[in-house]
Every structure is written in C-alpha cells, then in structure tokens.
Design brief:
Helix content is about 35%, strand content about 25%. The chain is α/β, with parallel strands linked by helices and about 200 residues long. The strands form two sheets. Strands 3-2-1-4-5-6-7 form a seven-stranded mixed sheet, sandwiched between helices. Strands 8-9 form a two-stranded antiparallel ribbon.
C-alpha cells in the first residue's frame, strides 16, 4: 500500500477531503503522517481525532532549509511515497524538492499560470476574469510554477465576492486533488517537457 504524507498549516479542508477518499477506498493509499508547522492548526487536531499519526514541527525562527530537513526526515521515517501540500503556507527549499522528485503535489485556487501566490481569488476578481478555478500541480523550485496535473474551471458570477468564489473553487479543489493523487499513485502519467499527459 502506497503511503501519503500530508503537510498543512491551517484548517486542512483539502486534507479532510483526501482522508475521506482514502477511507472510502477511492484513493489506493494510506495516510502515513500529517505534519503541520503550526501547533494550533485545526487540520492537525482533526487528524488526531481521526486516529492518524501526526507531527508538529514548528517553523518559527528556523531557516527554511533547516526546517525542511526536519520535515523531510519525518516523511522518510514514515516511508512516504507521495507528499501532498494541503494549505501548507511555506515555500519549499530546493533541498526538499530534490528529495521527492515529481512526488510532491500542491493545489492552488487559480487556473495557473494565472494568479500565482497568495490571494488568488482576489487577484481574479480584481482582474475581471469570467472564469476562475483551481490547479493541482507538481511542485518544483518556483512558486506555483510546477507542471500541471489537473485543472477545474469555475465561472465567475457578477455578484461574486472573494468568499463566495473561494467556496465554489474549494469544492473543485476537493474533487481534482484526489483525482491527481490517484493518477500519480497508479503511474498513469508521463512527462513531455512541462506537459503532464495521461499514458495511453
């Protein structure tokens, strides 16, 4: 059975969606460990309630790579096959990315490469786009620049606020993140430069 390592910093709604799909047998894996850099993260408390292995490795006051080395060590201790960022509010160091090549996934609430970084829904509304959405991508050494695995489109309504748009996008995040995890675990992807395509 393949093993997932989940990294989160906050409420962890994407983590919960992944966990539900694991429990239901829709993702062919087990969650080996849930790690947070914030001791008060709601997602960490939820993982404990679900009986999952958890670790809190605080990032405060630590250099980025020094912190990342601690997280990588914990992931390797639990023999994690795939790392899933679920609202993990840290930029990974090149060291971290090299330790798990093409084995780190992130979900971003925009149709990348549009609106990377923070406040993607606000960026989309300020720009006046008619369609927003979300992207699951492999993590590279940039910020939201890795090869795209899955995307979902969400129409922007005239009366949308940042909150209403974010809520609709989040539903799609929950759906496509699990799809992307399955594609990687089942080795159904091949790589053509930046393009990630389904194997025949």
């Amino acid at each position: 059975m393949k093993k997932l390592g989940i990294l989160l910093s906050g409420r962890g709604s994407n983590f919960e969606a992944i966990a539900r799909n694991v429990q239901a047998g829709r993702i062919p894996a087990e969650i080996a460990v849930v790690i947070s850099n914030k001791p008060d993260a709601v997602g960490l408390a939820r993982a404990k309630e679900m009986g999952l292995q958890t670790r809190c490795i605080t990032s405060k006051g630590k250099e980025r790579e020094a912190f990342d080395r601690q997280v990588v060590a914990a992931l390797k201790e639990f023999r994690v096959d795939l790392v899933c960022l679920a609202g993990f509010m840290r930029i990974l160091s090149p060291y971290f990315v090299r330790e798990f090549p093409r084995r780190i996934l992130n979900v971003h609430p925009a149709l990348l490469p549009a609106f990377p970084g923070e406040n993607a829904q606000r960026q989309a509304l300020d720009y006046g786009v008619k369609f927003a959405g979300c992207t699951v991508h492999l993590v590279d050494e940039g910020v939201d620049t890795g090869p795209i695995v899955c995307q979902a489109v969400v129409p922007v309504e005239d009366n949308d606020t940042e909150q209403t748009l974010a809520a609709r996008i989040l539903k799609e995040e929950h759906r496509i993140y699990s799809e992307a995890i399955c594609l990687l675990l089942e080795d159904r992807l091949r790589y053509d430069g930046r393009r990630v395509v389904l194997k025949d």
